TrEMBL record:
One of its GO terms (biological process) is tRNA splicing, via endonucleolytic cleavage and ligation. This is tRNA intron endonuclease. Transmembrane segments: none annotated. GO terms for cellular component: nucleus. Residues 26-117 form the tRNA-splicing endonuclease subunit Sen15 domain. It comes from the Eukaryota.
Amino acid sequence: MEKHPSYQALAHVLPKYPRAAGCIFQTYNDILLAQQWTEVQVVELESISRAAITGKKPKTDTTLHVVPCSLAETLSFGWLMKAFSQLGDPPEIYLAITSDDASLVYYKLSRGIVKPHI
């Protein structure tokens, strides 16, 4: 991992959160290299012991917030509320759920009850 070109952007957070390092690394590379987001930044979320990733999808002006986690983790409502709070209470966040086989799925979470687009 340390030899990967993107490691330098993550070097300040990966050693701090070793249990989440793999999912942070995988999510960061997917967002930056595969999804080609712009203005990508790594934000520490100390209250939930990990880093999040913010950025913009191509051809958009909206900043999105992604919280990486593992499929093997158990998340609580309180954990999610802390993530929302530390990210500045955005209307929505995305969970980037990684698995051991390198699969990555994004789930959009909103605060409260939100009517889906039809």
